[in-house]
Amino acid sequence: MTERRVYPNLSSIGKLLGAESARISGDYAEASSLLPAIPTLEGKNRLIASRVLVASHVGQAKASEQPDVAGYHLGEARKVIVKEYSRGRPDRIATGLDEFVHDTPNDLLADEAKYLLTLAALTGNSEILDAAQNRMNTVIETTKDNALRAAMVFDMQRLRYKDGENSVKYEKVKAAFSDIATDTYQHDRPELVAVAASRYLLTAQDREDFREVERGLVIFENTVNQDQRLRHHLIDEVTSEHNAKEWGKHTADENYVALSLPPRS
Question: Which of 85, 151, 182, 211 has the fewest Cβ atoms within 10 Å of its own Cβ atom?
């Protein structure tokens, strides 16, 4: 077990900055340990802390081979989403949001979609998968953040390909990857591109399209060169796909299905 570091003298803002750095680095347990008291934060910092905490628990769920451990972390993420994410509605957004928040309502919807996709993998529940895709479609249709839209389109095309693999769907995955893997996004939004490149090269590998595997790896390395903390994403995606297969060997627990989210109004 990795020993957790202790920060007794850090302010709430200092802990938030440390948690976000840990999240970017893939140390999700460290990130979540630094944010036990979100109510001590206000305004944009509280919303950012909520997003970091949700991402950290979803990251820990995806890294967990045991369904009960994954379910625990998804439950912790759900508590934050249900309690805090209403603060991100358009009429509650403060001005001067941190760079972490680009398009707050759609950032939150994207977070919820990632949560629901992980829960769908854990439960095998098609209604939960539909709820995730509905949120993704809303982001695609409404966001003004072109990088976020491109990332959502790529993930949607990849989901459609996995639902019924064929060459037509694969070509759409390739085209969507080209849209997110631009030089501009590699420079300005390297985390989005690093995640997409990791997923893309795994998809191409399953397809035995080794030229595209190499393409994905080159773009991943180019992106990681922007920020070495992003290197963990490839391992994260490999681990996540393995664990999803392990989860599929277990009968879905109704308690996990109950972790779904209420419809977005």
Answer: 211
In 3D, which of 226, 240, 188 has the Cα closest to residue 73? 240
Give the Cα separation of 224 and 215 in Å (integer): 14
Rounded to whole angstroms, the Cα distance separating 236 from 225 reads 18
CB 58 within 8 A of CB 114: yes
Provide the residue-wise pLDDT of the chain in tens; the chain has 265 residues: 444 444 444 577 788 888 989 999 999 999 998 876 666 677 778 888 899 999 999 999 999 999 999 999 999 999 999 988 876 554 444 444 444 455 578 999 999 999 999 999 999 999 999 999 999 999 999 999 999 999 999 999 999 999 988 999 999 999 999 999 999 999 999 999 999 999 999 999 999 999 999 999 999 999 999 899 999 999 999 999 999 988 987 766 777 888 999 887 6
> Does 12-257 carry CATH code 1.10.10?
no
